[in-house]
Amino acid sequence: MAPVLHRPGPSARAPAGVRPFAPTPSSGLKCGVTPRQRSVLIVAILSSFVAFLDGSIINVALPAIAREFGGDLALQQWVVDGYLLSLGALILVAGSLSDTYGRVRVLRVGLIWFGITSLACAVAPLGTLLVVARILQGVAAALLVPSSLALITSTFSGAAQGKAIGAWTGWTGIAGIAGPVLGGVLVDTIGWRFVFGINVLPILVTLVVLARIDEPARTGPAPRIDLAGAGLAVLGLGAPVFALIEQGRLGWGSPVVFGPLIIGVLALAGFFWWEARAPQPMMPLALFRVRNFWVGNIATVGIYSALSLGFFIFSVYLQQVGGFSATAAGVTGVPATLMLLLFATLFGTLAGRYGPRRFMTIGPIVAGVGFLLLLAAVPPIVVWLQVVPAIVVIGLGLAITVAPLTAAVLGSIRAEQAGIGSAINNAVSRVAGLIAVALAGTIIGERLDVAGFQRVMVVVAVLMFAGGIASWLGIRTPATDSPELEHPEKLL
Known about the structure:
By secondary structure, the chain is mostly helical. It has helices at 35-57, 62-69, 73-101, 103-123, 127-155, 158-189, 194-197, 200-210, 227-250, 255-275, 291-320, 326-331, 334-354, 357-373, 383-410, 418-438, 440-444, 450-474. Its main location: membrane.
């Protein structure tokens, strides 16, 4: 899953108020930087890289995990959603922890905890314990992403900040898309447990580099942590997700299903009620008065729920129904990675020139068409005819979409609110994926077969189209270079 960005400083502004970032991994590494800035960039990239890699690498390992533990689709859903649940629910409060206790300290704790929980996943003797370890691993990931971005924005400024964020975006985006390739090789050669064990090496390297970075002195009072909001968010997300996954096994009439569902919905309503009244909310609802911010997040829901559900089911389908090895299933995603690397810079630049609206409209529609092309992937699957063209089209759609979407959402708010804006958009994308994966069993039916796979691809395409339509109807290109929040009444 491609990450979202902070907005750079004013000197990095693009025409028409749009601030594009080309997600090329080399873009931020060519500028002249101090040794401390270079260390910060390395730490930020590696910290987020392991978090995004772990979120995507797992898909190709799911069939092997299910074979060893004797689990069904529900176990595979929980292995994915356990991680997304704690990551999505806690990423906002993790941003507050970073502001309160310091970016370096929170990153260090997050890295150590991520390493410990990765090893716990690698040695888990039972499926239930693996899910618990994944939930705890998601907690660590929530600490890594906002702290790494905040460290960049507090260290770089102006054009250098934009280039550093571009480097961060490129490498983490590659982690999210290329992870299945590495995961497939590991599963087929030395086993699925090494999908988690491999995290230890980059974590150790990151901790060594992090030791060279001093914590910047605080310039203002530390914000209070919204513990009530965090608790309501966890309950409001966790309980419904539990119900959505387990209803396939127990049915909607079971109290084990409808009880948590009702509790979760009430908790989620309580979360929004509290955030509207809390003195220092972890999700300031006032940001949603900005048109491009709230419309962009609606588009994010459609686009990232489609990506999470589509690639989750596609990886499992290729192995369990198509008879592919884990490596072969992972390699099928390479064309999407190549399309992103080749064209994301171009479309980011064009969005800066012409505004994000048309690209946020066309991109998801192109990606949706790509998922519809996968309807032809019926066994015996001919990769070059039935898979590669579709994945190329999906990758092109993503290249058209990602940078303009980020620029539209985060380019619409004030610079001092870019941190929380990024955290909110990150949380929205993770929660969208979380719920989509939880609904997989409902869409597929009793077992994953060709018909169930095709139903999922149609749903994924519809979600993509919805993201594009929402962008066309709602996104506006600001007439001036001023952030929208300074004049929200013009775009409401």
